[in-house]
Specification:
The chain has 178 residues and is mainly α. The protein has one domain (36-176). The protein has twelve helices and no strands. The chain has helices at residues 2-23, 34-39, 42-55, 62-70, 72-77, 83-95, 99-102, 105-108, 112-128, 132-140, 145-161, 166-176. Helix 6 runs parallel beside helix 9, helix 10 packs parallel to helix 12 (166-176) and helix 11 runs antiparallel to helix 12. The longest helix has 22 residues, at 2-23. It starts with a helix and ends with a helix.
């Protein structure tokens, strides 16, 4: 009898910790305050708008799936981001240097093609931050040839604008051979 009670207590605790863990970093819908929004810098506005877009789309976590089964209104209201939306949000993340939101985009993406677009923008972010090894690693994880070619072309343009050193150029040429 005591073992059963202990087992139930442990399982209840683990369940509570699991729910807390999945919801602790959840992006929540915030009330729009025009005065506060007007006082924000442009990058803060972009971050706030991306967070609200993600909060209004469907994330793929086990807890959110379970929650949507029990609340039909929530199931109909949330939809995943399609490729065009992912591309637009990733461009904004790249422009305003928001890698933490860029890393969250795959969880809200509709399909694998949209997730590959996020990998493309991660590679471009690493290229902008002068980290060619990580950028090439991200490009290597892209399966679609068209997306990989686009990533390599844009990375080449970034490196050419920044006066990229010679050894990285050779690595980039090797990677271009799809």
């Amino acid at each position: 009898m005591r073992r059963g009670v202990w087992l139930l207590a442990i399982l209840g605790t683990l369940g509570g910790v699991g729910v807390w863990w999945t919801t602790r970093n959840a992006i929540r819908i915030e009330r729009f305050d025009a005065q506060q929004f007007a006082q924000m810098r442009e990058s803060e506005r972009a971050e706030w708008l991306i967070r609200q877009s993600l909060a209004r789309s469907k994330g793929f976590s086990p807890f959110s799936e379970w929650w949507a089964q029990w609340l039909p209104s929530r199931r109909a209201a949330l939809t995943p981001l399609n490729g065009m939306q992912v591309r637009m949000l990733a461009e904004v993340c790249l422009k305003y240097d928001l890698p933490h939101l860029l890393n969250r985009l795959p969880a809200y993406s509709e399909n694998e093609k949209a997730r590959e677009l996020v990998r493309l923008y991660r590679a471009l972010w690493h290229a902008q931050k002068s980290d060619p090894r990580r950028a090439l690693h991200e490009v290597g994880s892209i399966r679609a040839r068209e997306t990989r070619a686009l990533a390599l072309a844009r990375m080449g343009a970034i490196y050419q604008q920044g006066g990229e050193p010679e050894p990285h150029r050779a690595r980039l040429r090797r990677q271009r051979r799809l």
